[in-house]
Specification:
alpha+beta, globular, binds adenosine monophosphate, binds magnesium ion
């Protein structure tokens, strides 16, 4: 077996008892369908090797280099508010870590690699459509400057897997992450009262993500604050793009501040703060405008798990953790204002103007992405480019546009950073669905590859590519998304 990937295994070595050693399944005909060659190179990996037969075996978990110690990680999680004490990698394994030429450590993880002790009733499998969906949207997020796990490869297994709509091609996603530590990882050991393991986990997480806190007397509290700050920044960026994660369960909230698990996520076309795409989110728990509240709710769950390490006196620990959560709320608001100020080409985040902009959008069916691309024309006095996006442009809009022009002039605003903050191409749901259907039903990858190319360059206008920039036709069917497919 080639040692084309030199794995390190700090998680497996340092955290005995926090995982189960586990192998991937052998597949009838593993093939690399898509390799992220740019990512492979940046990790210092041999793209030619990965694309070949042995590479396909490695990227589907069937044959691993001697340096890999594959494991299934244990975690728990609050799913839609209800606690599940044992989730864990039910269809995934961690192959190990890769240290890139810059010295950065990345997990390499396979999703769809077969059943594990954490599979519960699941089949341990993934199918092509959702694997390509994660590939596409995580690449789009990366290109948009949002912290995220990355797709290294999408492989087919040669098997067929039974899903709601019949048999579908089996697939495995190989993805990287700066770690797979989640809020739910801490909850797993907290729920079992395993304080020693929790301590080990905290030390490990700090060494990996916040090494400057190592040995600090108030490390647990400061770690909580760091996680809150990273998540506040992340969710603010999501909000600035109209991104709806769709399943912000605590097992899907990372310690690193990277977006993870692209199941039912989607980008909003026209602005409606109550937008939900997920088929199971009946209460709107994970709706667009509820994401900041959920971030704080999830952070409170992390705080609960850390309490004994924050302070031996529980009341004091709770008081200190509450302060961190309040500070994160403030931090989020600041990050959110900064994100929108940037989108308006402003340096100073003018809260009144930004809040008023959201009010002006209400009930107007305005396309969230196109609105910002139309603003430069309005700045030059051509309001029509903006007004045409509104179903009933009114005097509130006129007043906002005048206030915006005045503020832009007063701040000596700049159009160039604005263009770099407002994408032309986002993963519009109708285009994503079209591309995935062609790939998984007819084996036609062409629409997917063209869309991927647009999304990897979201700020660069391409002549003749208008259909990638425009919303779905008005009569297009409403898109619904699904978890765990
Ligand atoms: P997700 O919705 O992908 O975040 O997954 C939530 C939990 O369900 C995790 O513990 C997954 O490992 C598990 N899971 C999702 N799909 C499957 C499957 N097909 N087989 C086994 N476990 C699964
Ligand atoms: Mg998950």
């Amino acid at each position: 077996m080639s040692a084309a990937i030199q794995f390190e295994n700090t998680y497996a070595t340092d955290l005995a008892g926090l995982y189960v050693p586990w192998q991937g399944k052998e597949w009838p005909d593993p093939q690399v369908l898509l390799l992220n060659t740019a990512l492979a190179r940046s990790l210092g990996l041999d793209a030619d090797f990965l694309q070949g037969r042995e590479g396909a075996k490695l990227l589907t978990g069937a044959a691993l280099p001697d340096t890999s110690r594959p494991i299934a990680q244990a975690y728990a999680g609050h799913q839609f508010g209800g606690f599940s004490p044992q989730l864990g990698d039910g269809r995934a394994i961690l192959l190990g870590e890769i240290v890139d030429p810059e010295g950065q450590r990345h997990d390499l993880h396979l999703k769809g690699s077969g059943r594990t002790p954490f599979s519960r009733g699941g089949d341990g499998r993934a199918v092509l459509g959702p694997v390509l969906r994660e590939y596409l949207i995580s690449e789009a997020m990366h290109a948009l400057g949002v912290p995220t796990t990355r797709a290294l490869a999408a492989c087919t297994t040669g098997d067929r897997v039974l899903r709601q709509n019949g048999l579908e091609p089996g697939a495995v996603l190989a993805r990287t992450a700066s770690s797979h530590l989640r809020v739910g990882t801490f909850q797993f050991f907290a729920a079992r009262g395993e304080q020693d393991k929790l301590r080990l986990l905290l030390d490990y997480a700090i060494a990996r993500h916040d090494p400057d806190l190592t040995g600090a007397p108030d490390a647990a509290l400061r770690f909580l604050k760091r996680v809150g700050a990273r998540q506040a920044q992340l969710v603010a960026q999501w909000m600035g793009l109209g991104f709806i994660h769709g399943v912000m369960n605590t097992d899907n909230m990372t310690i690193s501040g990277e977006t993870i698990d692209y199941g039912p996520c989607a980008f909003m076309d026209s602005y409606d703060p109550k937008t939900v795409f997920s088929s199971i989110d009946h209460q709107g728990r994970y709706a667009y405008d509820n994401q900041p509240a959920i971030l704080l709710w999830n952070l409170a769950r992390l705080a609960e798990a850390l309490l004994p390490m924050i302070h031996p006196d529980e009341d004091r620990a709770i008081a200190q953790a509450s302060e961190v959560i309040d500070a994160t709320r403030t931090r989020y608001r600041e990050a959110w204002l900064e994100v929108f100020a940037k989108k308006l080409g402003l340096c100073l985040p003018v809260a009144g103007l930004i809040d008023a902009m959201h009010a002006v959008w209400a009930q107007q069916n305005v396309d969230f992405t196109l609105f910002f691309r139309a603003l430069p024309e309005a700045l030059q006095g051509h309001d029509a480019a903006v007004k045409v996006l509104f179903s009933a442009p009114d005097e509130k809009l006129d007043a906002w546009l005048s206030a915006y022009r005045a503020e832009f002039t007063a701040q000596d605003g700049d159009l160039a950073p604005m263009a770099a903050a407002n994408p032309i191409y986002i993963p519009r749901n109708h285009l994503v669905e079209e591309a995935l259907t062609a790939a998984s039903e007819s084996g036609d990858m062409a629409p997917f590859l063209t869309l991927l190319e647009r999304l990897q360059n979201p700020f660069t206008p391409v002549d003749g590519a208008e259909i990638y920039a425009n919303p779905a036709p008005a009569d297009a069917p409403r898109i619904v998304t699904f978890c765990g497919t």
